[in-house]
Write a structure and sequence with these properties.
The strands form 2 sheets. The chain has a 5-stranded parallel sheet, sandwiched between helices. The chain is globular. The chain has 15 helices and 7 strands. By secondary structure, the chain is an alpha/beta fold. The protein folds into 2 domains: 193 residues, P-loop containing nucleotide triphosphate hydrolases (Rossmann fold, 3-Layer(aba) Sandwich), CATH 3.40.50.300; 134 residues, Zinc Finger, Delta Prime, domain 3 (Up-down Bundle). Bound molecules: zinc ion. Zinc ion (ZN) binds next to α3.
Length: 377
């Protein structure tokens, strides 16, 4: 993990945090909002280390942040003390990551066995609210980092309000979410909002290339994920690039919707299995939906590229590695039909989250994509 001041591409967020932690009234609750894989969690953990560190290091800004004076004292964790090392190892009694799967470790059997669709009030009470009111082990406070706060149920958010409003001395709560609009207004109003923008594409592609990914593939995933280093790395690691190339080729050929649907059914099952290997707690139905979403995302981005091209608009293409395919689809349909296909694909994404049969869904996707026909779902 990079040190706090070495996190790249998020200078605005880092400046805000440095100013906040130097101020007299340090915020005790933050919302870190941004797309997956933009560094929210890394920053939250490094901030936690800093807050709990026995001997934080301090150095003058000296041009690190253009928005700050050169003599502004920048602070980060020492990374050597007991506290820093135990946060890193996940064994620090004053640091807690809170996420919905913690339900597995709850004392009560009924909580352990419940399907984990959201971050429940039971988990929030046991792993955040109750421990927040207990004494700090190291005497420097406590830090709680909540992942996927948008999945926190309304009762859980309401239960947390009092702790967010007036937390015990030294307690800092960091809520990670993709969009603050998905949180209750009462939760939002009690936290300082820190936004994490998309990372520069070149930077994301460079990181992938350092991991041995070819420049063409690295640039593709950087664009496809909108500059999310976490997601781009994951997609590249799933070895989906060859499949994506043949999928785009099939869509451009548009000669066999049946074959295309079959290809998508198989690929979805395979990717869902990979997801379950990576996350043992993941339910089969959820893994299938997440995998389906990856492929719908790939397909939508292709038709979006073709729409950009058909409209004569200039803009960087996601599928810049297969410009001929983008062009052929643009010529076949034209802007109106392409916009219609994109609307149908968006509807498919909604259907994915209901109990629609996978084969039926992909059959419809294939027909819509190759002929612009309406869905029969
Ligand atoms: Zn330290």
């Amino acid at each position: 993990m990079p040190e706090l001041l070495d996190i790249v591409g998020q200078d605005a967020a880092l400046v805000q945090l440095q100013r906040a932690s130097a101020g007299e009234r340090r915020p005790h609750a933050y919302i870190f909002a941004g797309a997956e894989g933009t560094g929210r969690r890394t920053t939250a953990v490094e901030l936690a280390k800093l807050l709990l560190c026995e001997k934080p290091s301090e150095r003058p800004n000296n041009g690190r942040f253009a928005a700050m004076d050169d003599d502004f004292p920048l602070r980060q964790a020492c990374r050597r003390c007991d506290s820093c090392r135990t946060v890193e190892a996940g064994t620090n009694g004053d640091f807690q990551l809170v996420y919905k799967e913690l339900a597995r470790y709850h004392d009560e059997q009924k909580v352990r066995e419940r399907v984990m669709q959201n971050l429940s009030i039971d988990v929030v009470r046991k792993f955040l609210i109750d421990p927040a009111w207990r004494a700090s082990v190291g005497g420097r406070g406590k830090v709680f980092v909540v992942r996927q706060t948008e999945t926190m149920s309304a009762p859980a958010q309401n239960a947390l309000l009092k702790t967010l409003e007036e937390p015990p001395t030294g307690v800092t709560i960091i809520l990670l979410c993709t969009s603050p609009a998905e949180l209750l207004p009462t939760t939002r109003s009690r936290c300082q909002l820190v936004r994490f923008g998309p990372l520069p594409m070149d930077f994301v592609a460079d990181v992938l290339m350092k991991d041995g990914i070819s420049p063409t593939e690295a640039n593709f995933w950087a664009a496809m994920t909108g500059g999310s280093i976490g997601l781009a790395g994951r997609r590249a690691g799933e070895k989906l690039y060859e499949f994506k190339k043949s999928l785009v080729g099939q869509l451009a050929d548009a000669d066999s919707p049946g074959k295309l649907a079959e290809m998508l059914v198989k690929a979805t099952e395979k990717l869902a299995r990979k997801f379950r290997t990576r996350d043992k707690d993941l339910a089969t139905s959820l893994s299938n939906r997440q995998a389906g979403q990856v492929f719908l995302g790939l397909i939508s981005s292709l038709y979006h590229d073709s729409l950009v091209s058909a409209s004569g608009a200039a803009g960087p293409l996601v599928h810049a590695d297969q410009p001929d395919a983008v062009e052929r689809i643009a010529e076949r349909f034209g802007p109106t039909e392409l916009a219609e296909i994109l609307a149908q694909l968006a509807r498919c994404e909604q259907l994915l989250w209901r109990n629609v049969n996978a084969k039926l869904l992909w059959d419809n996707v294939a027909v819509t994509c190759t002929s612009a026909a309406a869905l029969e779902l």
